[in-house]
Amino acid sequence: MPNRDRPRIVVTRPSLPGDALEALAADFEVVRRQESGPATAAEVAELVRDADALVSVAQDELSAEVSKAGQYLRAVGSFGVGLDRCDLPAFTDAGIPVGNTPGAVTESTADMTWMLILGAARRLPEALAEFADGEWPGQDLHGLLGLELSRATIGIVGYGAIGQAVARRARGFGMTVHHYARTQASDEVSTWLPLEELLATSDVVSVHTPLTPETRSLIGADAFAAMKTSAILVNTSRGPVVDQDALVQALRAGEIAGAGLDVTDPEPIPLDHPLVSMPNCLITPHIGSATRWTRGEMTARCAANVRAGLAGEPMPWCANPEVYEGSGSR
């Protein structure tokens, strides 16, 4: 173990929302990286060489190299839910618990999903573009006719906490609610359907599945061909779950009516990407969790995970709990 008075926690950002990092600084040495963008694997590996714990952000690269570089590393707290940029098996093999922040983002992301659904359904980008050009589209009684949500069906792809929160809101709008997930189970809010049937019968398809090798490009050319020409696609999960080239073609060809995206591939999406200028595509810059409460709670959960890990206790939100089996964590 390094010869110092207090365990060292390295944070990959100059600051995080809320005051939980300041509370950690009362008991630990907290060292902050001064750059605000995502950290590469090489950068994180250098940061953790003499660290007891790491607080990272989901966009950082936590490769196997990082798990090996942190010779004293006993805990990783990731600010975010997705771990597709973390080599979780490598950290498990190294005996390092990794915590994330599920649950904290559920309601805010569901709200963001509904903002995109409403914006795409009522053709908000087109209306605002016409208004900016000096037109008043409300005077055209045949113009910008959108989707009547109270008479529509929503199909939710991925039925975890966020998908279920979206389903509850859909019932409030009077929608028929279907979902697709690996577990073939229905509840009082939503009915399970096979993916092909869900795509063919839904007026809104909302994507909430994690990014895995199986879900990468899950929504591609075949999916768009199966959807209604009047349907809209909304994605607040991970950008690569949707094949963006296929989405461009589907929007251009009128295979679907519109799209709302809070996630893209890559991020940030280049401003010259075809989707950015499409009038029937509403894009927001990955702000699904961007409320004061949610972001503060995410920091608090990171801090709680790291504090538990340094104390040799199970993390309250551990993504690799198998690390505690057998010989246990470091």
Radius of gyration (CA) equals 22 Å
Please give the count of helices. Answer: 12
Unreliable runs, pLDDT <50, ≥5 residues?
none
For the biggest sheet, the summary is: 7 strands, parallel
Level of helix content?
A: 25-40%
User: Strand tally, please?
Assistant: 12
Succession of helices and strands = EHEHEHEHEHHEHEEHEHEHEHEH
- Report, as a whole number of angstroms, the end-to-end distance: 11 Å
Strand ordering within the main sheet: 8-7-6-9-10-11-12
Mean pLDDT: 96
**Which structural category fits the helices and strands?**
alpha/beta
Portion in strands = 5-15%
| Basic shape | elongated
Structure description:
The N and C termini lie close together (11 Å). The chain is an alpha/beta fold and 330 residues long. Helices cover 33% and strands 14% of the residues. The chain has a 7-stranded parallel beta sheet with strand order 8-7-6-9-10-11-12, with helices on both faces. The chain has a 5-stranded parallel beta sheet with strand order 2-1-3-4-5.
Could you provide a short overview of the structure?
The protein is of the alpha/beta class and 330 residues long. The protein contains twelve helices and twelve strands.
Secondary structure layout:
Layout (H helix, E strand, L loop, with lengths): L7 E4 L8 H6 L3 E4 L8 H7 L5 E5 L6 H6 L5 E5 L8 H6 L4 E2 L6 H16 L2 H9 L20 E5 L3 H12 L3 E5 L10 E2 L2 H7 L2 E4 L13 H6 L5 E4 L8 H10 L4 E4 L12 H4 L3 E3 L8 H19 L20
Parallel strand pairs: 1-2, 1-3, 3-4, 4-5, 6-7, 6-9, 7-8, 9-10, 10-11, 11-12
Helix pairs in contact: 5-7
